[in-house]
Amino acid sequence: MDFSPVLISLKTAALSIALTFFLGLLLARGVTAVKGNGLRAALDGLLTLPLVLPPTVAGFVLLWVFGVKRPLGRLFLEIFGVKIAFSWAATVLAAVTISLPLMYRSARGAFEQVDRDLLDAARTLGMTEGEIFRRVLLPNALPGVLTGGILAFARGLGEFGATAMLAGNIAGKTRTLPLAIYSAVAAGDMETAGKYAAILLAAAFLTVAAMNLLGPRGKGGDRHGSS
């Protein structure tokens, strides 16, 4: 059994969640601060779009943008010497694109559940918006934020369609666990496919267990249950 898909998937999911976590927090905070309902709805729809699109469509859009023959793809290659399409960087980009909506939506929902009176009280005490975010908003929204991070990590670990379209299925380079399962089944090696699938099933189980541990202890869950 080749363990390179396991290592590639873990590296991809780890880097993608590091990017997705902070980007999701930033975007969620920014959208909740937008005043106009129309603009907020438009931004929310744009950020949620990868969640409802088929992953292959999202992958096609990424390939159209970052392909070596496209302006942005050539820019990365010429300036940074980085080829995005059909590289390990493409697996990370695909995972971030697909998992970011989960992180964003979870963080935004958690932020919106925080009592506005706490934020107003912090402003009357002279706190800056940055201090309010770090010392009031984020601590009170933390259970929901962590749940979003766990979901995003699991989604990045199991990403298939966008990765296949943008990164390809290159053994030892871009072949993640889902792609390894597909390749094994296509080759008739059901035993290897089953082993890879068992790893993903174990990861999914740990994800659900982690969310269940966080949920009952989270303040957001207590408020929901008492309403």
DSSP strand content = under 5%
* Global shape: globular
Q: How large is the radius of gyration?
A: 20 Å
Low-confidence stretches: 218-227
Major sheet details: none
Order of helices and strands: HHHHHHHHHHH
Query: Helix coverage percent of residues?
Result: over 70%
Overall pLDDT: 89
From the N-terminal CA to the C-terminal CA, the straight-line distance is 51 Å
Short description:
It contains 11 helices and no strands. With 227 residues, the chain is mainly alpha-helical.
Keywords, separated by commas or semicolons:
227 residues, mainly alpha, globular, disordered C terminus
Describe this structure in words.
The longest helix has 30 residues, at 4-33. This protein has 227 residues and is mostly helical. Helices cover 81% and strands 0% of the residues. It has helices spanning 4-33, 37-52, 55-66, 71-80, 88-113, 116-124, 129-157, 161-166, 177-186, 190-217, 219-226.
Question: Which helices and strands appear, and what pairs or packs with what?
Answer:
Layout: H1 4-33, H2 37-52, H3 55-66, H4 71-80, H5 88-113, H6 116-124, H7 129-157, H8 161-166, H9 177-186, H10 190-217, H11 219-226
Helix pairs in contact: 1-5, 1-7, 1-9, 2-5, 3-5, 5-7, 6-7, 7-10, 9-10
